[in-house]
Amino acid sequence: MKKVAVIGTGYVGLVSGTCFAEIGHQVICCDIDRRKIDLLKSGIIPIYEPGLEEIVSSNTELGRLSFTDEIGAAIQASDIVFIAVGTPMSATGEADLTYVKAVAKTIGENLNSYKVVVTKSTVPVGTGRLVAQTVAENRPDSSVEFDVVSNPEFLREGTAIADCMNMERAVIGATSDKAAKIIAELHEPFNTTIYITNLESAEMIKYAANAFLATKISFINEIANLCERVGADVTEVAAGVGLDSRIGAKFLQAGIGYGGSCFPKDTEALKHIATQNNYEFKIIESVIDINHRQRLIMLDKIKEALGSVQGKHIAVLGLAFKPNTDDMRYAPSLDLIPALLEMGATVTAYDPVAIPEASKQLPAETEYGANVYDTLRGADACMILTEWNEIKEMDLTRARELLRAPIVVDGRNCFSLQEMEELGLAYYSVGRPVVR
Ligand code: NAD
């Protein structure tokens, strides 16, 4: 059993902290956001993540997991301190390290015994060294030692608990064998592949992994756009291509591009790292451009379906950047709904969980439906932006009856062309022939 503090109790800190408690460690999750800590102390989970509430509650009851905004005390009481704060995209595209630096300073100020300081946040190469320097400069007693480790996180929102409990690998970038051993031992009960590297390689592995996945998405979206022009069906193409084990079937779903809190900022950050190092990273630049363009194809499709969007009422289904999360960071809906409104449409939107978060960010004139069918009633077209099960499994016959015009523009390829044809719905999807 190890004593662990996790600083930053967001999607990553809360899930990974809870999973470390689940495998038997003593974990204190800390945050500067008092509201978040108060909610957690009273058993309320501030984010939507399936299964999280149960595992937080069981570990809290067992006394293995606690929450505090007294970060200094939590650091002092722990042997391992994780940094899991946000590293958002700055105006210039690089990762904003303000929060990481602030936490490194706090760790330094509270360094009362040997600790391993672990960066879980996604950070540019060189940040581990910066954290080490900041901790060293701020420690009250320079004879107290510490080590810095990079241990990037690979969980996905929506399946975060399973991803963490069954992690495919733990990457440990360390400057000392002692620290690498401690963090490897911490992960032992996960029974996962431990991959030890130097600090810089671990930091780069995270960016390389996300950039590669983003590349897969932009690549299949390019193929999809070409499929539309030549009469091929991208779902058949992707399935056929994915049968090659060198390629694999995962991450080959054509759609309206990636969003969320990681891929957009991490691809931009990698591009920035390349530029800073006088390297033109051509693939990543294209991946970013393609992704931006891909969102906008939804506007072309709705115009193709309706002629003019002016004065039309659009039902938008799905707001979060992907299913099973309430995370709205860089969600396509944040670009597309304002664009529809600017083009003179009215919009009623629905999402199973993201409406409270979305309504803070979308224009005030956006209306919200109580459920899928309420949202579809009387609309001139339905636009699908997130492939929630509730949306994929909607009763299409009922949907057709509720819509004023039987038109579905689907950015996530939720339905088969055949079923839409049989039901008499006009269907515009991505990389597949139009059903009229
Ligand atoms: P988040 O915004 O959900 O959470 C960050 C938390 O840090 C917030 O609760 C914030 O209040 C807190 N915080 C900020 N400054 C603090 C400080 N000085 N002291 C204590 N707490 C502070 O972010 P997230 O989605 O959990 O991401 C965290 C990091 O993990 C990022 O670098 C991200 O790129 C990376 N990551 C995220 C995911 C994901 O799916 N969300 C997956 C892998 C890696």
TrEMBL record:
Transmembrane segments: none annotated. Substrate binds at residues 154-157, 206, 251-255, 259, 322. The active site is at residue 262. NAD(+) binds at residues 31, 36, 87, 122, 157, 265, 329. Residues 315-417 form the UDP-glucose/GDP-mannose dehydrogenase C-terminal domain. Its EC number is 1.1.1.22. One of its GO terms (biological process) is polysaccharide biosynthetic process. It catalyses: UDP-alpha-D-glucose + 2 NAD(+) + H2O = UDP-alpha-D-glucuronate + 2 NADH + 3 H(+). Keywords: NAD, Oxidoreductase. Pfam families: UDPG_MGDP_dh (PF00984), UDPG_MGDP_dh_C (PF03720), UDPG_MGDP_dh_N (PF03721). Pathway: Nucleotide-sugar biosynthesis; UDP-alpha-D-glucuronate biosynthesis; UDP-alpha-D-glucuronate from UDP-alpha-D-glucose: step 1/1. The keyword Oxidoreductase applies. InterPro entries: 6-PGluconate_DH-like_C_sf, NAD(P)-bd_dom_sf, UDP-Glc/GDP-Man, UDP-Glc/GDP-Man_DH_C, UDP-Glc/GDP-Man_DH_C_sf, UDP-Glc/GDP-Man_DH_dimer, UDP-Glc/GDP-Man_DH_N, UDPglc_DH_bac. One of its GO terms (molecular function) is UDP-glucose 6-dehydrogenase activity. It comes from the Bacteria. Catalyzes the conversion of UDP-glucose into UDP-glucuronate, one of the precursors of teichuronic acid. Belongs to the UDP-glucose/GDP-mannose dehydrogenase family. This is UDP-glucose 6-dehydrogenase. It comes from Paenibacillus sambharensis.
